[in-house]
């Protein structure tokens, strides 16, 4: 079902891009063609306007020997009166009719289906006698057959180019839809996975709480001490829900860009000692060794709250996945204007396959491990986000001979 939705989204984006780009190419092609046509016709139109002006002001007709520009003289009845001057051209030109309503307007005329003219009808300032007839109108004509052929050839070239670009557009649109939909589909899939995982994480504690409360309802006369274990388990699940909701809210803020870094001057040695103090006591109570090697000193600008949260996540993680008698260590140093923090443990370690996903939301190598250790599956995801907003890097490595090392590198100011 998910793959079907992804394919539909990709196809919809592909069709949209292909149609939009094809329309753009078509519109641009039409604009170029019309501009080219107008430029070619402009010369003929200017010649006609110049000839019409000369005729009206100086009574000069175009040279009849020039076939490019010629004139037809009409009487008031619309008959051509200068057939003799036209020679062999008189036969096809005899089909032309005069339209008195189009005086001084430029029109197109086509003869024999393949010869084209631009023409303008001019009323003569004074009648002109040609033989036995008197002309009162002159139709000035400019042959534009070559221009029409140029426009036609150019249109064919544009059409071929349009087909070529459309083909390229279809190919490019398909590639672009695959490329740009990939992060969108990935984000959508991550959202789906997050919702499904969150629903699963919420369902279990809610079911436990519901069962324990329903059990209490079946024993209305029982004392609290008799139901102590059930109440404690319900409270434990409530605390787990609170922790899970807080982690989910943190991630929601992270992905909505609502969270900001509040950098402030912090004395590293004092700050880290304050963070790790309770963990030394917890490790001692659990019969675990906890050592530190704090070489990073001095005042740096960091987000105290976020870095505190980062250290808590990493130390919590180390304590959860070590057994009695195993060791945990925290090393810090400053190198090349970078704060390096390493949290090491000699626990069971992380497989190479799990290392690729250890920062994913709700990921757990041991499906039952999260509940046994009390985790939500979001801690390391939040840790990575904290490091990312500090423009740093967090990695997970093997701690030889056994265990895991989480290494954080943060640029400092």
TrEMBL record:
The source organism is Periweissella fabalis
Q: Which Gene Ontology BP annotations are present? A: cellular response to phosphate starvation
Which InterPro entries does the protein's record reference? BphY/WalK/GraS-like, HATPase_C_sf, HATPase_dom, His_kinase_dom, HisK_dim/P_dom, HisK_dim/P_sf, Sig_transdc_His_kin-like_C
Task: Note the CDD domains from the entry.
Answer: HisKA
Q: Where in the cell is it found?
A: Membrane
Among its keywords, does the record have Transmembrane? yes
The molecule here is called histidine kinase
Q: Which GO terms describe its cellular component?
A: plasma membrane
Q: Which GO terms describe its molecular function?
A: phosphoprotein phosphatase activity; phosphorelay sensor kinase activity
Q: Matching Pfam families, A to Z?
A: HATPase_c, HisKA
**What reaction(s) does this enzyme catalyze?**
ATP + protein L-histidine = ADP + protein N-phospho-L-histidine
